[in-house]
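=== Structure Prediction Worksheet ===
Name of assembly: unnamed complex
Input type: mixed (protein and possibly other molecules)
Chain count: two
Listed entries:
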Amino acid sequence: MPAAGAAHRLRLRAAACGLSLVLVMGACSSSTQAVQPVTLQVVMADDWVTPPYVAAVRDFERAHPGVTVSTTKTPFGLMRDTVQADIANHHPPDVVHYHAFAAAAQGMAQQVDDLWTGHLQPSEFLPGAVEDVTWAGHRYGVPLDSNALLLMYNDNAFQAAHLPLAGAPTTFSEIVRISPALSAADGTRKAFTIPTSDWWTYGWIRANGGEVLSAGPDGKPKITLDDPAVVQALSFLAGLVQKGYAFPPRSAASSSGDALALFQGGQAAMYASGSWDVAPLRSQLAGFHVAAMPAGKPGLPEATALGGSSLFIPKGSTHRELAFEFMLTLTADQYALRFASEQGRLPVRPRLFQNPVFKDADLQVYVQHLSAAHPYTLEAFPPAKQAFQQALDEILRQGHPPAEALARAQATAVAALGTSP
Amino acid sequence: MTGPPPPAGGDAPGRLWFGRLGSSILLEVLSALTAALLASSLLTVAISSRLTRSAVRAQSQEIATSALTVLTQTFTQKAQGLTTVLRNLAAQIANQELLDANRRPDLIEELGAGVRNLQLDLLQLRVPGQDPITFGPALAAQQVLGFDPAATTDRIVRTAAGDFVQVVSVPIGGGGGSPLLVGGYNYSDALAYLLRNALGTTGNVMLVVDGQLAGSTLPVPPKQPPVAAAPRPARPPGGMNLPLSPVSVRIAGADMLVAYAPLGDIVGRPDAALGVALPDPVAALGRSLGQSRLITVGVLVLVALGLAWLLFRALTRPLRRLAETARLVTEGDLDAGFHVRGRDEIASLAAALERMRLQLLSQAQSLADTSRRVVSVQDDERRRLARDLHDGIQQQLVSLAVKIRRISEVADPASVRLLPEIAQDAEDSVFALQDLGRGIYPSVLADQGLEPALRAQAGRVPMRIQFTVPPAMAGRRFDRESEAALYFVGLEAVTNAQKHAPQAAVTVSIAVEGSALVLEVRDDGPGFDQGQRSPGVGLRNMSDRVAALGGSLSVETSPGRGTTVRAWVPLGHAPVEALQASPAPNP
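=== Predicted Assembly ===
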């Protein structure tokens, strides 16, 4: 009997343990299946919501069940104001497409040094791309693309004008020299077209050996809008406008007028832009070519503005890790190559330039001149940037003397920088 | 029994209870309870699941319909918005007279800004007699150029690449033959993703044209719009055969609730539709209900089993107590009482059992008293006989011997020679009578106790008999009945040893063990096989003697292993009153 009783006890205990195990497993499995839905708010530049982007979003959502990526398109130029308003309204998005260093300088971005660890190495990126996400020695985002401002010209227009020049102009003076032949007296065709863009103008300043912002001896930023090289570059552009060789910006607002359309429509023979304009121009503009930025004067080293962008996580975002994962997905090689081949957005990882995608002649020109490009750091100081934009409008659209307008801008920027971040 | 009884309550009740689990009704009760609980739980859960599923299905269908409404409104707003912004652009072109040949750069710049600011995929300006100005993919532009808003209400153009472009056209300046501004956007995944923002956190958007999925946010987009598994009805010419009410569809391994809304009124094409695919909560609910059902039933059963266990233990505790008492009674412990508590059936049973026990106790007591009385009467008779012999015949014989001695001193020599012999015979008769009296009830037993009596008897036996008695036992006396019983057991055992093992060494041990007085007679003789020999009359009489006092007797022997006779009687045995008054006979 005692043996039978022990066996009974064992059976009862085994049954109780088994039932408990089943319950625990059931509870565990039910808890693991309960995925809390998350919406990741992403604000992208309006011209970036394209098939490669959609593919990245789709793959990300597939890899993260329960996560929905809600994308909002915003013009890149309005990105800062849009996100600042969102943060102020306590509804910050989770990922923003902008310049992370500028966002950090303005107190909008979360530091992501910790998230970089184990995922990203600065050495895998172009130096300029790393600069685009670095502020005060810390990382604030993930580089998305790179670019450079280069000269675009319509070779058909050049040939029609019988220019005494083989290929593109290489100096400012050559541009001036060929401009009359490329411009019609009635103003319907001109040699050049100038957009409303401080970044674009910075490329010409760089080409002239100028700089608008540098580090002072004390390590603090030093505004140099009135630097002679800057004034000369603006004088060159203003001269093209005044002589009727270039279409000026139609208004101070970037939403009005489109310099690219003039070049694309054949009204302007030359333009300067990044590689994102290569695809539409090549398909619609016969004789389209890309060349290096002309130098301000012979002998100056090649230089231009570095384009590109990065992603950052705004302050207040509650999905920091998930947002970073999305940024990693969007900047993964497979999408970087698609962005390059389909949208002309150059990757930020030099190793990708070995891909056959970059055998394209026009893209190849951009790749070759990326090293001469420098980031537009004034982006980090909105008051100085606004002063500079104001000066550009005064010079290029209103005809103010460059030296005076830039001197005013310099004074305004310096005064504002004292209160800048 | 081979020794004193074990102390009462030596085994834990729990162990006893578990030990008897096999014969308990617990398993039956628990099994029945579990089965009943399982059945009722499953029934309850099944009914509640069905009701919940129905409610959730109705609600989810309502949500899907609402989502589709929201989506359609968003889509309509986008289409209307496109018309509005194109009208504004057309008005701007007209107001600024940008169609003037001299303003062509301004016109182009305005159109360029328009296509960028309005986020259009395609923009065309058609001026009669002039080459159109187009912004957007050249391949699509060629197909859109063939679009004639005056000739058709269809606002969707299929490009050579297989894409669909929704176009809106507005005249510039008004009137027939006036310039036309045509704007469009692609039906693409990107558009679907942007439309999806209107749905919130979940859901997928599908754009359907001509039976094809032109754009969607589905994780793995199929080529054709997903519909229910049932055979798809033939599509009416120019129409759509998509479900307008939400239906459950499995898409890429996920259960979705799918519904479509026709876009014919918006895009002028009856085979265009906007679809929404939401996660089907009913399918997910089914899975989670299955799990929760298992957990609920399991928890219920566990809780019920636990409660039943406790309840059963509480209810059966009196029964178990009765059973335990009955076991003790069965084993001879008639002092263990059946306690009666309450007035229920178990209390009635306990009361009946208690009455039985008391009756048994009374009968046993009576039987024991009778046995003791029988033994006492026997002993009394022995003592009386010994006393009679001592006081009667023995005295007479002594007197006769004395007289014969005197006669021999005065009688004739011839007669005198016979007198000593006669006296000697008389004295021998006295000694014989003394021996007889001693054998019937030895006076040393009455005077000095068990050990001296057995030692005195051992002195008369021609054997090697050794005594093992603890020093504390020296001079200790016990009640007369116990001493007499063990004395006669010892006497019988030694006599048997002398008879069957005359060469053996015999050891007699007397000890107090617990509440019992124990006598043991052990010899190293040849022993015997107990199975081959029935106990003799002497041994049976001794057994009855100790049994009458509540003790017992055992014999342990086997061939070649000697024999041990062990007897015990309980200490503190109340002597029979009749015996207390009986004086011990003098030798």
